[in-house]
């Protein structure tokens, strides 16, 4: 079987910061990889990287590796994988009031990465709760 063409999925992100409440100190990352079945996908979350890979039913292999600006806490992060996208709520490791200046360690522009300006404080807890409900069935692999 021929190898599927590889593409970067569109990735959107937003963040919240708190110096005192870990529940309010997270990144919201959305990997838009339509038609990639959960059982076919590979998702690895480490303190400094998020890796996603998977074939879609439309003949495209999505793959992206995100080297994060700073560390996250994989054990307290949540995943919701639907037919259209993978929603991640990644808890930042350090409690700080300051926002990260960017998602990625590198300051080079990534054409597939966009800031999600539509997320606001009222909407984020609802999304976090939704992601938490399906986190029990999602598999997060921590790679050393």
Outline, from the CA principal axes?
elongated
Query: Largest sheet at a glance?
Result: 5 strands, mixed
Number of domains: 1
Please report which band the strand proportion falls in: under 5%, 5-15%, 15-25%, 25-35%, 35-45% or over 45%.
35-45%
CATH class: Mainly Beta
Task: Give the assembly state of these chains.
Answer: single chain
Per DSSP, the total helix count is 1
Corresponding CATH architecture = Sandwich
Distance between the termini: 32 Å
Q: Mean pLDDT across all residues, rounded?
A: 85
Taken in chain order, the helices and strands follow as EEEEEEEEEH
**Quantity of strands, as a count:** 9
The helicity comes to under 10%
Determine the CATH topology.
Immunoglobulin-like
**Rg from Cα:** 15 Å
Lateral arrangement of strands in the main beta sheet: 7-8-3-2-9
Question: Would you identify the regions where 5 or more consecutive residues have pLDDT less than 50?
Answer: 122-128, 130-144
Structural class: mainly beta
Question: What's this model, at a glance?
Answer:
The chain has one helix and nine strands; from the N terminus they run βββββββββα. It has one helix at residues 124-135; strands at residues 6-7, 10-16, 26-32, 42-45, 49-55, 61-67, 72-81, 86-92, 113-115. It starts with 5 loop residues before the first strand and ends in a 9-residue tail after the last helix.
Question: Secondary structure elements and their pairing?
Answer:
Layout: E1 6-7, E2 10-16, E3 26-32, E4 42-45, E5 49-55, E6 61-67, E7 72-81, E8 86-92, E9 113-115, H1 124-135
Parallel strand pairs: 1-6, 2-9
Antiparallel strand pairs: 2-3, 3-8, 4-5, 5-6, 7-8
